[in-house]
C-alpha cells in the first residue's frame, strides 16, 4: 500500500472506532436527561433507576470515547500535516470552541459521577444537562470542520498555496454546516435511542417477573418514542443535506446516484451497483423523475452527471452503495419504530398482549443497524469527497504525511482498538451481570 | 507586542499550566501505584485526587495540540511530520491509561491492573512528552528538500535526551509529592503528609542537579540556546530564590499548631519557581519553534484567525470559570470528600 492509502486506512479506522463511542456519548446523555426529567415530573422511581444504569454504561463508554477522541484529534496533525496547516489558518475556531465543550462535559461528568451523593437533586439534573450539552456541542463543532472540508469557505488561496483574506466565521458557517451538523447530532440521538431500545427489547425476550417486565417496557416505550421522532427529523435533514450536495458538491451527488449524463427529469436509482465498465447502475430500481425532484423540489431540475467533470476528480463508484445503505437503514428504522409503537399502542397497552418475538428481535437489531448507518454515512461523506481532502483546494495526496513508518503504527493501533472493544464489552457485561436491575429496585425500596 | 509574540506567550502559558497539572496527574498515578495499600493511606489520597481530575487534565493536553495548530499551523506541520512515532506512542499509552482509569471504577477486579498501568504510564508518557524540547533545540531533524524527518537513532543515543527525561521525571515526582503533601494536609492525614514531604525533601535538590546536568551536556547544535540562556540569567536567579523559599518552608512550623512545614506555601513557591524558569527558557528559545528551520514568524496563523481565537479564549474561559470553581470546591476543598476513610 502506498503511504496515502495507508494514511487513509489508518485514519479511517481510528475515526470509525471513535464514532461508535462518540455517537453513544452524544445519544445516551439525552436519554439520561429525559429519564431524569420524567422521574422528577412523575415521581416514578423506575426512571431514576434507568438514569442511574445508563449513566454507568455511559461512563464506561466515555472511558474509550475520550482517549479515542484524543487519538483522532492528534492523529489529524500526524497523518495529515498538510491539511492541518490550512485548517490552522482557516478553520481552527470550531476546534478550539470544541475544547471548551469538552471541558464542560468532563467537568460536569466528574461532578455527576463522583459528587452525586453530595449534591441536591436539582443540581444533579443540571450536571447531567451540561454533560449532554457539552457532548452534542462537541459533535456539532467537530462536524463543522468536516462540513468545511466538503464546502470550503471563508478564505482565498493563491496558486502557490498562500492563504489570504481569511474570515474564520464564514469558514465556520460554511454552506453545509447547519444542515450536516444538525444531521450528525440528530442521528446520534437516534442511535442512542435505538441502542437503549435494543437492550430493552433483548431483556423482554426472556420471561421475567412482572415488575421487571414493566420496567423494561417503560424503557422500550420511551426510547422508541425518541427514536421515532429522531428518525423522522434525520430523514428530513438528510434530504436537506442531499439538496446541499446538489448545489455545492454535484460530483458527489452524481456518484451517490450513479448518474453519468447531465439531465432534467433525472431518475433516482435505488440499489444495484455502479458498473465501472458500462458506466451505469446495474440491478437498481429506477424511479423516473425522482432525483430531480429530490435535488431541488422540481421535476425539471437539471442534475449534473459525472461526465460533466474531469475523470480524475470523480469520486469512487462504491459511494453509490454506501449512500443507499445509509438511506436504506434510516428508512427501515423509521418504519420499524413506527410499527413497534403502533403495536404497543393497539396491542400491548390496550389489550395487554406481549410483543411478538419477531418484532423484539428486529428491535434488538435496531441499535447496531443505526450505528452501521452512521458509519456508512461517514464513509460516504469522506469517500465521496475524494480525490479531495478540502474540496477543490487540496487533494488527499497533498494533505498526507510523507512519513513512511505508518505500517507498524497502524498494526499497533488496530491491536489497541481490538483490545479496547473486547474490554468494553467484558466490563459492561460483568458490571450489569453483577448489578441486575432487580438489585437496584431492592436498593430503592430499602 | 507583536501578534506572533502574543501567540507564543499564550502557547507557553498553556504549556506551563499543563506541565504543572500533567506532572501532578501522572505523578499521582505513580505514587498511587507505589503506595497501593500503604498504611498511611498515601496511595488512596493520590487516587482520590486522580479519579475526578484526570479527565480534565487530559482535556488540557488536547487543548495544547489544538491551540498549537490554531496559532502556529506551520509548526503543527513540522512537528506533526517529525513527531509521528513518539506522539503515536504517547497516544497509545494515554488510551490504555484512560480506559483503565474508567474501567477500574466500574469493576473492582481491574483496580490492581489499573494501578500498575497508570503508575508505569505515569513515568513513560511524561518522558516521551519532554522529548519535544531537545528536538525543538536543533540537531535531530534531517531536512531533505521539503521533507523533514526525525533522526531517531541519533536522538536515542544522545545523552541530552536522557538528561531531559531525568529532569522531567524528577520534576514530575517533586511537584506531585508537594501537591499530594498539601492535599494530605488538607485531608488531615498527617502520616501521608509526612511521607510525601520526605519524598519532596529528597527530590528537590535532585531536580536542580538534573537541570544543571542537562545544560552542561547539551548537544553542540544547541549551543545557541546556552548563549541565549546566559542573557536571561535574572529569571533563573529569581527562580532559584523561589526554590529556596519553597524548600525551606517545608521546615517552617505551623502557626499555633503542632506539625512541621507549610505545604501550601511550598507548592505555590515551587509553581512560581518553575514559572520564572519557564519565562527565562521561553525568552531564550525565541524566535524559534524548531531551531533552525522554523520561527514563530514563519509558523504564524492568519491574523484574522488569531484574533477570533483570542476572543474565543476569553469568552470560553469566562463561561467555564464557574464550572471550574464548583469543581475545585467539590474535589479539592470539600471536607466530606477529602476526609472520607
From TrEMBL, chain A:
Q: Supply the Pfam families for this chain.
A: Cyt_bd_oxida_I
| Keywords recorded for this protein, A-Z | Cell membrane, Electron transport, Heme, Iron, Membrane, Metal-binding, Transmembrane, Transmembrane helix, Transport
**What is the protein's major site of localization?**
membrane
Membrane-traversing stretches:
15-38, 58-83, 95-115, 122-145, 182-205, 217-236, 322-346, 358-380, 408-432
Where it sits in the cell: the answer is:
Cell membrane
Membrane topology, as annotated: Multi-pass membrane protein
InterPro entries (UniProt xref): Cyt-d_ubiquinol_oxidase_su_1
In its keyword annotation, does this UniProt entry include Membrane? yes
Q: In which family does this protein belong, per the annotation?
A: Belongs to the cytochrome ubiquinol oxidase subunit 1 family.
The name of this protein is Cytochrome ubiquinol oxidase subunit I
Record the organism: Fictibacillus norfolkensis
Automatic annotation (TrEMBL), chain B:
UniProt entry keywords in alphabetical sequence: Cell membrane, Membrane, Transmembrane, Transmembrane helix
List locations, semicolon-separated. Answer: Cell membrane
Q: Which domain of life is it from?
A: Bacteria
Q: How does it sit in the membrane?
A: Multi-pass membrane protein
**TM spans (from-to):** 6-35, 56-73, 79-103, 115-141, 161-180, 200-219, 234-253, 265-286, 306-328
Which Pfam family is one of this chain's hits? Answer: Cyt_bd_oxida_II
Q: Give the main location.
A: membrane
Q: Which InterPro entries match?
A: Cyt-d_oxidase_su2
Q: Family per UniProt?
A: Belongs to the cytochrome ubiquinol oxidase subunit 2 family.
Name of the featured protein: Cytochrome d ubiquinol oxidase subunit II
Q: Which species?
A: Fictibacillus norfolkensis
Amino acid at each position: 500500500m502506498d503511504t496515502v492509502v495507508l494514511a487513509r486506512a489508518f485514519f479511517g479506522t481510528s475515526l470509525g472506532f471513535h464514532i461508535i463511542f462518540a455517537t453513544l456519548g452524544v445519544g445516551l446523555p439525552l436519554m439520561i436527561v429525559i429519564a431524569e426529567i420524567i422521574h422528577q415530573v412523575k415521581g416514578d422511581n423506575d426512571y431514576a433507576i434507568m438514569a442511574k444504569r445508563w449513566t454507568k454504561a455511559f461512563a464506561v463508554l466515555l472511558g474509550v470515547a475520550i482517549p479515542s477522541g484524543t487519538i483522532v484529534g492528534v492523529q489529524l496533525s500526524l497523518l495529515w500535516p498538510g491539511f492541518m496547516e490550512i485548517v490552522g489558518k482557516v478553520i481552527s475556531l470550531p476546534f478550539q470552541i470544541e475544547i471548551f465543550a469538552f471541558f464542560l462535559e468532563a467537568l460536569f461528568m466528574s461532578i455527576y459521577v463522583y459528587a452525586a451523593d453530595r449534591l441536591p437533586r436539582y443540581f444533579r439534573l443540571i450536571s447531567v444537562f451540561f454533560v449532554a450539552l457539552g457532548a452534542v456541542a462537541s459533535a456539532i463543532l467537530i462536524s463543522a470542520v468536516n462540513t468545511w472540508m466538503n464546502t470550503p469557505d471563508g478564505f482565498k488561496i493563491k496558486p502557490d498555496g498562500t492563504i489570504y483574506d481569511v474570515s474564520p466565521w464564514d469558514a465556520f458557517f460554511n454552506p453545509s454546516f447547519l444542515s450536516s451538523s444538525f444531521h450528525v447530532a440528530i442521528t446520534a440521538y437516534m442511535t442512542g435511542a435505538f441502542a437503549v431500545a435494543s437492550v430493552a427489547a433483548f431483556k423482554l425476550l426472556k420471561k421475567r417477573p412482572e415488575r421487571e417486565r414493566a420496567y423494561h417496557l417503560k424503557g422500550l416505550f420511551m426510547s422508541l418514542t425518541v427514536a421515532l421522532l429522531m428518525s423522522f427529523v434525520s430523514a428530513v435533514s438528510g434530504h436537506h443535506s442531499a439538496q446541499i450536495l446538489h448545489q455545492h458538491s454535484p460530483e458527489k451527488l452524481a456518484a451517490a446516484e450513479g448518474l453519468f449524463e447531465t439531465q432534467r427529469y433525472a431518475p433516482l436509482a435505488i440499489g444495484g451497483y455502479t458498473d465501472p465498465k458500462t458506466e451505469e447502475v446495474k440491478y437498481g430500481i429506477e424511479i423516473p423523475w425522482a432525483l430531480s425532484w429530490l435535488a431541488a423540489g422540481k421535476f425539471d431540475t437539471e442534475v449534473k452527471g459525472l461526465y460533466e467533470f474531469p475523470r480524475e476528480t470523480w469520486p469512487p463508484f462504491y459511494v453509490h452503495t454506501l449512500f443507499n445503505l445509509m438511506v436504506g437503514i434510516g428508512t427501515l428504522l423509521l418504519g420499524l419504530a413506527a410499527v413497534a409503537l403502533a403495536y404497543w399502542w393497539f396491542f400491548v397497552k390496550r389489550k395487554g398482549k406481549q410483543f411478538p418475538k419477531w418484532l423484539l428481535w428486529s428491535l434488538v437489531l435496531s441499535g447496531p443497524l443505526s450505528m452501521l448507518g452512521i458509519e456508512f454515512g461517514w464513509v460516504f461523506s469522506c469517500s465521496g469527497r475524494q480525490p479531495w481532502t478540502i474540496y477543490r483546494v487540496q487533494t488527499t495526496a497533498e494533505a498526507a504525511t510523507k512519513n513512511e513508518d505508518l505500517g507498524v503504527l497502524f498494526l499497533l493501533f488496530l491491536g489497541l482498538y481490538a483490545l479496547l472493544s473486547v474490554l468494553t464489552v467484558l466490563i459492561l457485561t460483568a458490571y450489569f451481570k453483577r448489578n441486575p436491575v432487580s438489585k437496584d429496585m431492592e436498593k430503592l425500596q430499602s | 507586542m507583536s501578534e506572533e509574540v502574543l501567540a507564543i506567550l499564550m502557547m507557553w502559558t498553556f504549556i506551563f499550566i499543563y506541565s504543572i497539572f500533567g506532572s501532578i496527574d501522572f505523578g499521582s498515578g505513580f505514587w498511587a501505584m507505589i503506595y497501593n495499600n500503604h498504611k498511611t493511606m498515601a496511595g488512596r489520597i493520590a487516587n482520590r485526587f486522580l479519579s475526578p481530575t484526570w479527565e480534565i487534565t487530559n482535556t488540557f493536553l488536547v487543548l495544547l495540540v489544538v491551540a498549537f495548530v490554531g496559532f502556529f499551523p506551520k509548526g503543527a506541520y513540522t512537528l506533526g511530520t517529525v513527531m509521528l512515532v513518539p506522539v503515536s506512542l504517547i497516544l497509545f499509552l494515554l488510551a490504555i491509561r484512560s480506559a483503565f482509569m474508567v474501567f477500574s471504577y466500574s469493576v473492582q477486579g481491574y483496580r490492581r491492573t489499573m494501578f500498575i498501568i497508570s503508575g508505569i504510564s505515569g513515568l513513560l508518557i511524561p518522558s516521551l512528552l519532554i522529548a519535544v524540547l531537545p528536538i525543538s533545540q536543533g540537531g535531530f531533524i534531517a531536512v531533505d528538500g521539503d521533507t523533514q524527518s526525525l533522526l531517531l537513532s541519533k536522538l536515542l543515543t544522545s545523552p541530552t535526551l536522557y538528561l531531559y527525561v531525568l529532569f522531567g521525571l524528577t520534576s514530575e515526582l517533586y511537584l506531585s509529592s508537594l501537591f499530594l503533601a498539601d492535599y494530605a494536609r488538607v485531608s488531615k492525614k498527617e502520616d501521608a503528609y509526612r511521607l510525601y514531604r520526605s519524598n519532596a525533601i529528597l527530590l528537590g535538590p535532585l531536580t536542580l542537579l538534573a537541570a544543571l546536568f542537562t545544560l552542561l551536556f547539551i548537544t553542540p547544535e544547541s549551543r545557541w540556546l546556552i548563549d541565549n540562556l546566559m542573557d536571561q540569567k535574572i529569571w533563573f536567579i529569581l527562580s532559584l530564590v523561589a526554590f529556596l523559599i519553597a524548600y525551606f518552608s517545608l521546615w517552617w512550623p505551623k502557626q499555633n499548631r503542632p506539625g512541621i512545614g507549610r505545604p501550601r506555601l511550598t507548592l505555590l513557591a515551587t509553581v512560581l519557581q518553575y514559572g520564572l524558569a519557564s519565562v527565562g527558557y521561553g525568552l531564550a528559545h525565541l524566535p524559534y519553534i524548531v531551531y533552525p528551520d522554523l520561527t514563530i514568524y514563519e509558523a504564524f496563523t492568519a491574523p484574522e484567525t488569531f484574533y477570533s481565537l483570542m476572543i474565543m479564549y476569553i469568552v470560553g474561559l469566562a463561561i467555564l470559570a464557574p464550572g471550574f470553581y464548583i469543581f475545585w470546591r467539590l474535589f479539592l476543598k470539600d471536607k466530606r470528600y477529602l476526609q472520607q476513610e
